[in-house]
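Lecture 7 notes. Example A: sequence first, then its structure tokens.
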Amino acid sequence: MRDLEKASGVGRETIRYYIREGLLPEPDKASRNSARYSEIHVARLKAIKRLQEERFLPLAVIRTLLEADDGDRWLLPEAFPMLDALLAQRLDDAGPARVALTELALPDHGHDHLADLSIDIGEDGTISGRDAAILRTVQRLDDIGFKSELGFDGGQMRLYNVLIDWLTAQELRHFLEHTAGHVGEAKALEMAEQGIALINELLGQLRTRALLRKLAERRRIANDNI
């Protein structure tokens, strides 16, 4: 048991719990007070740990994956990372080409937003196509009057970044925990790719509806106070 703890990084009480729950096979009993564990115990423990930490999957789902006909694939080190790395690569490949920052012709105050929006500038002075699109959108907002002197400043940009970071962390965790582990790698990748644009559209619709409701509530309160 001591060797198994050291090899897997999992404590003995957790190992015993996994054996009771059927996530690990029973060890070979060498005697009444000793047992022999094999490499399969090490591989399964490492797979369980990574499925929990990297996929956020509950034990019931992990047991289902390991007991499936192709369950042994989860025991292989090369099984990780899979979905997240593939999705990131596909999204990156599908994105627009990098753009030289000088091509955007930003006004002087436009450069103030680079840090607020977490824009990464390469050593060659280029930024990603997505970052360029973000800056162009910010410039369009500036053109119609959303300027820093009217409150649309770095604080507002940082607020958007914080909200988006929190939201996407929750989305990724939920997708990996409740979707990816149930439909298979290929289907999950297809769903994620197609779903991003649709969820972006859904978020815009929900935000517009929420703004309209807030405005209606403000009108109602103002009318009540007349």
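Example B, a different protein, same format:
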Amino acid sequence: MWPWGHLAVGYVAFSAFVRIGLDRRPTDRAAVVLAVATQLPDLVDKPLAWQFGLLSNGIGAAHSLLVGVPAALAVAVALRRRGHPALGLAVAVGYVSHVLGDILFAVLFSRPPVLPSFLWPVYATPAAPAPGLGAKTWQLLLDSRALLGGGMGRTYFLIEALLLCGTLALWFADGKPGWGLLRTFGRSKR
């Protein structure tokens, strides 16, 4: 799953949880925390595989149902106990939605199946030659382009496009949480 897909799935789930569980809309801070949490497993595991060759497929400790997910949930509980329930929820929903999204993607598209990789350290992928972050990203873009040539690829693209459009509409309905904080941060860097 691409970064924007993780962000979209995480945002839809988070908005629903905040609206139902906390009876409000997502805040700026929580939306930014959510955005980071939806990317965190890849920000850890992909460089370990693609740049340093410590994993073979970019799925390791950070994607692990036995290590990464419990660690994220522990951070969420700690934030809640410190009086930041929305930030804790953002970490939990963002991180868990990323891993579950990757599991679903693996079930649908991986050849050979990579599902055991989500059980690190019980199942660990062997080290592999590191192609480099740029080279691997470029190869994935080319693979995605080839995937669009088939019916399943076009269906996936259509579903992802609908998800992104729906998420953008929800984000606007929520008042564009996070946008003001990012704009303020951008201005302060000038």
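Note on Example B: The chain has one domain: 3-182. The mean pLDDT is 90.
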